[in-house]
Amino acid sequence: MMRGHLTICKVYKDGTKETVLDKANLVTAGLGSSFVDIQHNSGSTYTTDYAPYYFQLGTSTIGYDTDSATSAYFYQVSTPLDWSAYGENTDLDIVKRYRGFYASSIALEPVSDQNWVELLNTSAPLSSTVFSGTDEYFSLIREGRVTKFFMDAFEAEIVLDEKTANGISCTEIGLFARNPKGFYEDSPLLMAYRTFTAIPKTKDFSLVFHWTLGFLGLSTNIDDYYSGWSKYFPVATGDGTYT
Question: pLDDT by residue (tens digit) across 119-142?
Answer without folding.
Answer: 776 766 666 677 888 999 999 998
